[in-house]
Specification:
This protein is of the alpha/beta class and 265 residues long. Helix 1 packs across helix 4.
């Protein structure tokens, strides 16, 4: 099973230009992501290639400083997944499975990457696999407060009993009627999505040929294009320390929050 871990790191973000080069606790975001990818490779009993994919020479230069392979991709890539596929096609040889590890997710647990690879190794009928975290009530309360400031940071997922994703939203789903009756449990009914995807390469090739979905455009979530075209998304549940669920970086405000989290560790 030939596998690639590709880190799409786009400089020209509309909301946060230069985001992968932003320092968090004195270390660049991209450096943190490369470190976790290298840790993920340890102990995986399949062949894994690691590379950064970018459209900007500044990020490519930083990748060289980090001693990680970098593939220049088109600045016309519409999504991170388009960039991942372009990078995979520029690598030598045919790949079976690819993990798109976002360059703005510096606190992704290495075991999450490993679990995606193991899931596909155990079942190569999987089309797409992605992790979710069952939020504790305190984490859900924090997410609600966070969305008052940055409403489009943080994505939630609805999943069925088999772990397949039914829907994703920037709104917090599900709505919880009579919430007080559920608060005796440590965990809420809400699952937060971690923006990490493992694709069968043939599925990724199909995905990028599909037109932008109606709900994908409304929510700004590319994974909805998969669901709108009846491509199944398997989820895996991560067990993570308290607070890690809110560690994604979507805005400058999130950097401040992340540094506060680091200071508390």
């Amino acid at each position: 099973m030939k596998t690639a871990i590709i880190i799409p790191a786009r400089y020209a973000s509309t909301r946060f230009p230069g985001k992968p080069l932003t320092l968090i606790g004195g270390q660049s975001m991209l450096s943190r992501v490369v470190d976790l990818a290298r840790k993920a490779k340890e102990g995986i009993d399949v062949e894994v290639t690691l590379a950064v994919a970018t459209e900007d020479q500044r990020i490519a230069d930083h990748a060289t400083e980090l001693n990680v392979d970098c593939i220049m991709t088109s600045d016309a890539c519409k999504t991170g997944s388009d960039r991942v596929l372009e990078a995979v096609k520029k690598l030598d040889g045919a790949y079976d499975f690819v993990v798109g590890l976002q360059g703005d997710a510096p606190f992704t647990p290495p075991k999450a990457v490993q679990q995606l690879i193991h899931a596909y190794k155990n079942d190569n009928n999987i089309e797409v696999v992605t992790p979710v975290i069952n939020l504790r009530w305190s984490e859900l309360d924090n997410l609600r407060e966070q969305k008052k400031i940055t409403p489009f940071s943080g994505t939630t997922a609805i999943i069925n009993q088999a772990g397949q994703a039914l829907w994703f939203s920037k709104n917090i789903l599900p709505a919880i009627r009579k919430e007080e009756t559920y608060r005796d449990n440590e965990f809420s009914p809400v699952h937060q999505h971690i923006g990490l995807y493992g694709y069968a390469v043939k599925t990724l090739e199909k995905f990028v040929t599909l037109p932008e979905g109606h709900y994908e455009k409304l929510e700004g979530l590319e994974q909805l294009r998969l669901l709108e075209n009846n491509i199944s998304i398997q989820t895996i549940k991560l067990d993570v320390p308290l607070g890690l669920a809110q560690a994604g970086i979507d805005s400058p405000e999130d950097v401040t929050r992340a540094e506060k989290m680091l200071a508390q560790q």
